[in-house]
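[job 4471] stage=fold_predict status=RUNNING
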Amino acid sequence: MRLGIILAAGKGERLRPLTSTRPKPSIPVAGMPLICRHISMLSGYVDVIRVVASYKKNVLVDTIKNCDDFLAYRSTTGLELIEQGAELGTGHAVRVALEASKNLFDEVVISYGDIFIPFKYYEEFLSGDYEVLAAETDKPWEYGVFKVKQGLIRGVVEKPDKGSEPSNLVYGGLLKIGKNDFEEVYNIKMSPRGEYELTDAITSIGAKRGLKPLILSGSEWTDVGRPWDLLSANEYGIKECIQESCNRLKGFNIRESETSEPAVIHVDAEVDRHSVIMGPVMISKGAYMKPFSLIRDNTFLYSYSVAGVHTEIKDSMLLEHAKVPHQSYVGDSILGEHVNLGAATQTANLRFDDKPVKMTVKGARVSTGRRKMGAVIGGYAKTGIGVLIYPGVKIGSYSWIYPGCTVSRDVEDHGKLEC
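[job 4471] inference complete, writing structure tokens
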């Protein structure tokens, strides 16, 4: 018997304001919510899937209920939602999922529900004798870094000082363990930050016998931790869908666009014949491109979102029911669910000095590493007509930006900016 555990309890604080209204695994990427990608891959391989939830659990429940609306195929693998209770880390979450029935399963696959893993590598991991997913990165100090000896993973060093990393391989969010390894999960000690870390169990197992890794390059794996990571994952996901003829998703067809790159369009999307599509782009069920609208360069219009008349949207994500009305420009931006922009709202996405755009993450100014980065707007926010938004600005969920305002600094959730 095999058990699949999907860890989906975290708050996703670095993705705020997008996670102010939903848990991170509920955010859609390239046609479906992240949690549905993991469910689709584990289905058929494991006998039972347990999703460990806590933060905004009800939203996650609704997302999971609707997964079959996106997936072209999913087996009858049983699925259970487990309440973590106190959020005491990833090791604690795995322990909660194992507690009731650890002796029923011979193998357990543990997946982080907020990691973007290409389908082909997910399949390779599950079907092979790999035990842990490792990803190459040029910034290993930001993650748990693997100790490697003779090709096997022997331990994890959490966020080492820059320059002291034991390798450039970091934990990629997939782990496969056997019954003999369960005790290592139960023996995890609380870390200095007050959590039980799954990586401590990886260190114990690695020291005991070593773990065989499947290694991905950094361009093939994305920890969807920050808004610009979400844009990168979406870009990869659209191209992945095109390469695989979108055979994992329901209702999508590939068609020509105004460029050499194709578009992925749902059969129930509404695209006016006077609109322009410059692929690669993806347009989901119920999305509406009005006359003379233009979308291009890795844009994703999710369910029932709207691109208005004489509007241009470039390299951006519009989540469900987000609306960009006439004469607006949205570039390199993410609009949360039910966002409504006033007419002629403009998102700037390029600094005068041409340096990478910075964004505030958990109170610190951080480089996005992107030359172009627009706005991140939380769910249910509204702007009036003629609003201008500076590069890298975050606008909180349920906030109001009054007509004619120039938004040069972040706006908190439920905030109001009058000019």
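[job 4471] summary: The mean pLDDT is 92.
[job 4471] exit 0
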